[in-house]
Design a protein that fits this description.
Number of domains: 1
CATH architecture: Up-down Bundle
Structural class: mainly alpha
CATH topology: Four Helix Bundle (Hemerythrin (Met), subunit A)
Number of helices: 4
Shape: globular
Mean pLDDT: 87
Length: 176
């Protein structure tokens, strides 16, 4: 199978992960909370435009980041099948955690349209849970796996708030 076989497994694993995890966290749970009802102000064109922008941007960044994990990192976003290589290109040149930022954007876009305080509280809970997971599990795990390369990347690229200009560092993880 060669190169395509090498890429098919991470791509399929990543697709399954995206459907199950972000699909549940960013779509099913918010839908259950809001029952997909709109607030009166949710019909205002500006609110709809901002919400749509957050949802479209979040979905695009999420899919882009997952693609990078599968193709460049040769792994999945799941801790059970992590990447072989540190991914430092694409959206990862702007922010270290684009998938979490993207999911927050998806939830935030829905929160703008919803009359529910529940969705706002859910977004806050998501932020707290993800911050703890990243700080106490992901970062130490990446540091252990990639050593000085991850440390240099960590110092150059912010955790949550994207850099306006991409990090000018190398796009290949072995060159970090």
């Amino acid at each position: 199978m060669g190169d395509m076989g090498d890429r098919a497994t991470p791509l399929l694993g990543s697709l399954l992960f995206v459907v199950v995890v972000p699909g549940t966290v960013a779509v099913l749970i918010p839908a259950a909370i809001t029952r997909w009802t709109l607030a009166a102000w949710g019909s205002w064109p500006l609110v709809v435009a901002i919400s749509a922008g957050l949802i479209i941007a979040g979905a695009g960044v999420l899919l882009h980041a997952v693609w990078r994990f599968a193709v460049e990192g040769r792994g999945t976003p799941s801790p059970t099948a992590p990447t072989e290589q540190l991914v430092v290109s694409g959206a990862y040149r702007h922010v270290r955690n684009p998938m979490y930022v993207a999911v927050a954007s998806l939830i935030g876009g829905q929160a703008l349209l919803s009359p529910s305080l529940g969705i706002v509280l859910y977004l806050a809970l998501f932020a707290v849970a993800v911050t703890a997971f990243v700080r106490f599990y992901e970062e130490p795990t990446l540091q252990a796996a990639h050593g000085e390369s991850y440390h240099r990347y960590q110092e150059a690229v912010p955790r949550w708030v994207p850099r306006l200009r991409p990090w000018p560092g190398p796009t290949r993880p072995d060159a970090v």
